[in-house]
Specification:
mainly beta, 4-stranded antiparallel β-sheet
């Protein structure tokens, strides 16, 4: 499985780099510098890729990407900034995404994102029901401040019910 994951990742990086050159192809993720991408392979062969443009999931069954990007109408949607921390539960049904460049000043789970605390950071929980992935939660530190970088590192328990989220700038 590890060899297959490495092969899939190499192929995907190659495809992403090539497709980035063709700006007309909107069915792929934007990945200007794939060396900054972080990825995880789920139990069904789907590939999660976090980049400087958000998060994407490659579904091998359909051969297409589903993009999760910032939606200005939804302040709790994934931010437009760099996604570099990903953790997938052992059962493959929960994904934790760290977005340490998120700028919301709110505290605690479900806090509003207002862009008032530069690089405070946030984490996002995605869950799979059947074959569909949906964002379930938007998480903030209980004492969120600018430059905390909450979400710089993330980890999930095997069942996906417990998360650990690092904040490298917390003082």
């Amino acid at each position: 499985r590890a060899i297959a994951a490495r092969i899939v990742l190499r192929i995907m990086v190659s495809i992403l780099t090539e497709r980035r050159r063709d700006q007309r192809d909107r069915g792929t993720i934007r990945c200007a510098w794939c060396v900054h991408a972080r990825s995880r392979l789920d139990d069904r062969g789907g590939l999660w890729v976090g980049t400087q443009d958000g998060l994407a999931h490659f579904d091998p069954g359909s051969g297409h990407f589903r993009n999760f990007r910032h939606d200005p109408a939804d302040p709790q949607s994934i931010p437009a900034g760099l996604v570099r921390a990903l953790a997938l539960s052992a059962d493959g049904n929960t994904l934790l995404v760290g977005a340490w460049l998120e700028d919301g000043s709110g505290d605690g789970p479900g806090a509003a994102s207002d862009d008032a605390a530069t690089d405070a950071g946030a984490a996002y929980v995605f869950v799979r029901t059947g074959s569909t992935w949906q964002q379930q939660a938007y998480l903030k530190a209980s004492n969120s401040d600018a430059s905390d970088r909450f979400g710089r590192s993330v980890a999930l328990s095997a069942d996906g019910n417990t998360a650990v989220i690092g904040a490298t700038g917390e003082d």
